[in-house]
DUF676 domain-containing protein (Rhynchosporium agropyri), 321 residues
Amino acid sequence: MSRDNSDWSKTIFRAHGLPSSVKTFEDVASLLVMGLGLGDCSKDYIRVYSLATAQDFTQNFRQLPRSKTSTVMFVTIPSLIHDDPGKQEWRIPGNAPSRNVDDIILDVHFIGMTPLNDVEAGREHLFDCIAISGLASHPFGSWQPKGGPKTSMWIRDSLPKDLSGARAIIYGYNTKLDDSRSFQSVSDIALAFISQLETYSWTLSSARPVYFLAHSFGGPVLRDAMVQLDQRADEGSTCLLNLMRGAVIFGVPNVGMEQSYFRAIVKNNANAGLVDDVGRDSNYLDRLNESFSGASFRNRLRFFWAYETSNPPTVQVSSAQ
């Protein structure tokens, strides 16, 4: 669905594939305007909120050059976006042949891993904190305050300051409910999460310990991933599981959740089974709870469980769609 200009001015974008030579927020804005063809948007109208080095990326057992990722907002929307508002991702061709990366990608979907900070110079990088959001949520927006300006996001802005030595990362995955053709299960999503951890080098000896924040549907995804790793016998899975230290898990449907709102959205779509998996009296959740409770890592990892004491907002389909 297209957005008007006021919507875009409240939208946070992820710019990834930035060259490692980019050092400051001003560098990011200048690169977007001068080096990448967004000349119709002055750098004074680009707000940069974070700049972080991407995780090590391995492909066919070969470590690829590192790039940087930034979160930005536009006061004035570039024509690249304005002229094609139905998209969620835009590719900006790189112009400098000496760069390690060819193109810059702007997106609003935040799928995959998004690092939000680098550990301050002079401080030791002690651990990573990966946040996993819930069903039909946005990987970045679900951690922002509801209503008002969208310039703040506590995992990006506060967590690295409160936890010295921490690198904050959000994980995005597709949990769209309406008009979805996906028939993935929770276990499929958990397997994809494991694949991302492996791809971005958390199986290497140089990787830092990992803690998690998991909200709502993110809880079963995380727990399923841990169980799958525990049931494997390969060295990489053991290494990855040993890096995990614990999690804060809140608002999670361990015994199932009310389905009527979600059922009204998915109707008879292919992803109806995904909603059933986390519903009340779910056989899947019974099996997951049993496997998780008996897993070998339970006594080693530390978990904090939080629950909600008020009714949360429910997902609804807009009448405009």
User: Anything to note?
Assistant: Residues 110-314 form a domain with the Rossmann fold fold (CATH 3.40.50.1820). Residues 192 and 232 are 15 Å apart (CA to CA).
